[in-house]
Every structure is written in structure tokens, then in C-alpha cells.
Amino acid sequence: MALFTLAALSELIADKLPTAPNRTAPLGLGARVAFGLLCGAAIAIASHQQVWLGALLGLCGSMAGSFGGFQARGRLVKALKWPDLVIALVEDAVAIGGAFFVVTRFKRMTPPKSTSQSHYDAIVIGSGQAGTPLSQALASFGMHTALIEREHVGGTCINEGCTPTKTMVASGRVAYLARRAADYGVHVGSPKIDMLRVRKRKRDIVNLFRGGSQRRVERTANLELIFGQAEFASPNSILVRDKKRQEHIFTADRFFLNAGCRPAVPNLSGLKDISFLDSTSIMELNALPEHLLILGGGYIGLEFGQLFRRLGSKVTIVQSGPTLLTREDPDVAEAVAEILKEDGIQILLDARVEKVARHGNRVHLKIRLGGKMRSVEGSHLLVATGRIPNSDTLNLSAARIDTDERGFIRVNERLETSTPNIYALGDIKRRSCIHTHLLRRLPHHFARILSIRDTRPPPAGSFHTRFH
Ligand SMILES: Cc1cc2nc3c(=O)[nH]c(=O)nc-3n(C[C@H](O)[C@H](O)[C@H](O)COP(=O)(O)OP(=O)(O)OC[C@H]3O[C@@H](n4cnc5c(N)ncnc54)[C@H](O)[C@@H]3O)c2cc1C
User: Fold this and answer.
1) Higher pLDDT, residue 90 or 393
2) Ligand 1, pocket residues at CB < 6 Å
3) Which ranges of 110-241 would DSSP assign to H, the alpha helix?
4) How far apart are alpha carbons 355 and 341 in whole angstroms?
């Protein structure tokens, strides 16, 4: 590449020298052809095209330059009264611009180049708790399978959900127990929190789990791991855009959609004008918030509320409904609220946030509470008001896949979508009520659906998320 570029540059410079043969006579054809070839090849390689295309372009360019360029340039010098050098520069600019134009047009017309085989028996989109074991199982059933992941193997649970939260919760629990140590007859003094150390421990465990998961996928025979963002091109093909923005088309007999959810951002006055935390960015803080305001009293809001309270922050949870954890039985929600209050967390129920603002380094919430307006102020704001499906990233309309009004994919009891041979699993599908760790059982379910005799033992162990 460097050699081609150097040759191309020297051709362009040599052409401007007063002694250059084509500035005095249409000579040096062989040299110009050779340099032109190299010049075109350099352009082609730079554009990730095949060398022969660049060489052809270069050949045409240099022949045209040698035969017609000298005559034409001579006439232009006379007509425009511009120095020969200026005209030579314009000529080069037009030639290079034209070559790039042709190369990029050609690139769009050419079917995307792929290093991987482009047809699979099965493609799984998303390497979450459901997709990863499923892809391994499909491969072990003898199906040539691809697992497409746009970011990290392991999905939300390993990278932004269960694993990092439980790791940090373990730090919070140690701080909590240290504070209560005297009750157990142990005197340790008051704990100091080193958030950089808490975060590093969380990052290390996430990396360990992610790496292990990725290695297991890579070691699975019959399974290809492809990094890139996938979307449907038709009911039996997807387009995958990789990190270098290269596009690849893959087809498959069956697709399994496991693209998960992401944090929702509510439509609140002033929210889009300020910086706030979500369930991912809060775990990247390098210092403890002085006073954490949390919008949302679901399981994510409560988990972070208790964690940061135990680490030492003041915490206020603002919940729009009459209880916390609206999907749980009221007595369970009440018992949880009591535990949090005992820890010193302030809980505001039936509280509607009407405006959010930041003044200096303080966040201000205007809240309607019991018919009255009230202001609450803190140092940080965590928005934990639910999660929305990543179905909008998949161009589902190209495959005629139905979703509900919130974007969750509709499936039947066999996890089939509205399009034959396309299945949806995990959080992206409507009414996801399976505990994350039960998703590991899905391969057995699909073995039944696909009429495959699954001789593997059922997944072992309990499905509890451990404290790390
Ligand atoms: C803070 C937090 C804590 C949690 N704690 C727990 C817990 O303790 N216990 C529990 O059971 N559950 C917990 N959960 C929920 C759990 O993480 C999810 O239910 C689970 O991860 C969903 O798994 P999934 O397989 O549906 O999708 P995900 O794990 O979300 O995986 C989806 C994958 O698809 C990829 N993807 C998305 N779009 C595309 C695309 N177009 N192309 C290619 N790839 C794509 C994403 O990058 C991602 O890797 C928690 C969630 C959060 C946010």
C-alpha cells in the first residue's frame, strides 16, 4: 500500500517538473503507463477494491494523459493563458476525483464482499442469555450457524445487567456489613468507599465473564461469531454492517431474534437538555454521588437505590405509581419499601415529575405530589423508567414481522413471529416473563420445535444470579 501510494505521488510530482517529458513532448508513454497503473492500484487498494480495477483505471488515465493530454493541455495554455503547471494540477485533480467517483460507484454496485460463508442453516441475532446458548446448541445439532453481535458477547446480562450490578451490590453489602460490624461485636471503624476500586472490580469480572463466553462461542464447531449490526434485507436475508462500516449480506433458512432492550428515555420537560445517568452509565461513575435522585421504582431503580445508599449516598426514589415494583403483589412491594426506608432511602410515591433542570452541579425536579407542587434537589439523576426493545434496529418491515404498539415482537407459544422460520426470544418479544437465567433452557424448547433429537443433558445448576 505504502509503495503504491509513494509511486502514485512521485508520478504526480514528476509530472510538474519543467523537464517532465510530457510537458515538452508526448514522450515517456511506457513510464506514464507504469506509473498510471500503480497510481490507479493505490486508489483501488485505498478504496478496498481489487487491484485489477485500479490498474485498469490507471492504465486508461495514463494513456489518455499521454496521447491526448499533451495536445489538449497545450491548447488550453494558449486559450486560457494559465501557466502549464496550474493546468497540470487541475488535470490531476479531475483525474483523481473521477477515479474515486468511479471506484465508489462500482463499489456500491458490487455485491458486498464477505470473508464468511454467506448462507447458513440458522442465524441468531444478538448474543444475550438466550442467543448465545441457542447458537451453540443449534451448531451442536449439526446446523451451520452464525451468531451476529453488534457489541459485546453476553448481551445485557453479562455486560450491563446482572453481572456488573451484582458485583457492585456485593461491594455495597460489604460496606453495609462493615457499618454494622459493631452489632456483631466486630470493630472495624467507619468504611471509606473507593469508587475507582469498586468500578475496576466490576469491569474485571465483566471482562472475565465476557471473554469466557466469547471463547466458548469461538471454540464451538459449526458456529461463526460475526461482529456487526444486523437488519433484515428480506424475509430470508440480513444485512450486517461491521465496525469498519463494511456491509455483508447473509441468508439463512431460519432466524432467531435475540436483540434485547435498552434503557427508555421518558418524555419529560427539560430532560433532554441535561446530562443524566442510565443503568449502564451509573456503573461507570468514578466518585460516589452525594445525593442520587432516581426516577422509577422498578427493580433497576431499587437495586441501584439500595446499592448507592449502602455505599454512602443520600438516595431519593421518585415513583409515579402508588407502590414500588408495580408488577409484584402489593404486600411484597410494601415489604421491599420498608426495607429500603430502614436503610434511609426516601421514597416518594404517586409523584409525577413535571420538570427537570440543572443549575450548576445540582439537578432540580419539580414534582406533583398529592395535588401539590414540590421541589427535590440532588447531585445526580438516574433515569430508570423502563426499557424499550431494540426491534427498531432490525428493519423488521423488510421481513414482515409484527410488533405490538411498544415495539415488542409478537410471537405465538412456539416463539414464532408473524413470518415463518423467524423466531423471537428473550426481552425483545412481547410479554417477556421468563427469568433471564431460564433462557438457557430455550435450546431444548427449539430442539422440540425444530424436531431435533436433543441428546445433550439439560442445563445444570440453579438459576440464581450469584453475588460475585
Ligand atoms: C441493570 C440491570 C440489571 C439486571 N439484573 C438482572 C438480574 O439480576 N437477574 C435477571 O434475571 N435479569 C436481570 N436483568 C435483565 C437481563 O439483563 C435481561 O432480561 C437479559 O439480559 C435479556 O436477555 P436477552 O437475551 O433477551 O437480550 P440481551 O441480553 O439484551 O442481548 C441482546 C444482544 O443483542 C445485541 N443486539 C441488539 N440489536 C442488535 C442488532 N441489530 N444486531 C446485532 N446485535 C444486536 C445487543 O448488543 C445485545 O448484546 C437486568 C437488566 C439490567 C439492565
Assistant:
1) 393
2) 125-131, 148-151, 155-157, 160-162, 165, 229-230, 258-261, 279, 300, 390, 393-394, 426-428, 435-437, 439, 465
3) 131-140, 155-159, 162-179, 195-219
4) 25
pLDDT digits (tens, 9 = 90+) for 340-389: 999 999 999 999 999 999 999 999 999 999 889 999 999 999 999 999 99
Residue tagged 432466524 (cell numbers): 255
Kindly report the protein residue whose alpha carbon is nearest to atom 17 of ligand 1.
Answer: 157
Q: Are strands 145-149 and 223-227 parallel, antiparallel or unpaired?
A: parallel
State the closest ligand 1 atom to the C-alpha of 436, by its place in the atom list counted from 1: 11
Contact 327, 288 (CB under 8 A): no
Predicted TM-score (pTM) of the model is 0.74
Query: Is the per-residue pLDDT at 54 higher than 90?
Result: no
For residues 24-40, average pLDDT: 62
155 CA from centroid of ligand 1 (Å): 5
pLDDT of residue 39: 62
**For 58-114, how does the pLDDT look when each residue is reduced to its tens digit (9 = 90+)?**
666 666 666 556 666 677 777 777 777 777 777 677 767 666 666 655 554 444 444
In the structure grid, which three cell numbers stand for residue 198, read together?
Answer: 469498586
pLDDT at residue 236 tops 80: yes
CA 43, 49, 51: angle at the middle one, nearest 5? Answer: 70
User: How far is the centre of ligand 1, averaged over its atoms, from the C-alpha of 239 (Å)?
Assistant: 22
CA 131 to centroid of ligand 1, rounded, Å: 10
Per-residue pLDDT for 164 more than 70? yes
Is residue 279 within 8 A of residue 300, CB to CB? The reply is: yes
CA 401 – CA 410 distance, rounded (Å): 8
CA 433, 435, 436, 437 torsion-angle sign? negative
Residue 158: burial class (beta carbons within 10 Å; 0-12, 13-18, 19+): buried
Question: How many A from CA of 299 to the centre of ligand 1?
Answer: 15
Distance between Cα 158 and ligand 1 center (Å): 8
Q: Tell me, rounded to whole angstroms, the distance of Cα 364 from its chain centroid.
A: 31
